[in-house]
Amino acid sequence: QVQLQESGPGLGKPSLPLALTCSSAGAAITRSGNKWRGARQSPGKGLEWLGTIRYDGMTWYSPYVKSRTSISRDTSKNQFTLQLTELTPADTAVYYCFRDADWGQGTQVTVSS
Hints:
Number of helices: 0
Strand content: over 45%
Radius of gyration: 13 Å
Distance between the termini: 39 Å
Number of strands: 11
Largest sheet: 7 strands, mixed
Shape: globular
Structural class: mainly beta
């Protein structure tokens, strides 16, 4: 069984970057076929996909945040990190990582000055 755990700073500052890390236990992020995704849910809104990193490191991003988003990985730690730049209060949300039906519990990020 895969367990995913998000970690983040909790509070983000407008115009600054934010890094959210997702740790996987039970499945290697480099295992063939795996796709690891980041998503968020803002207050009163639906779930929004942000980006994906595949087992071989290839990435895809939502066009709505593509210019501000990057995903990288640390295979030695079995983690991937989603970075979001130029934060605004609209980026306030619960951020999740997931693989297929396996989801982390989410981590709250509040963007405020």
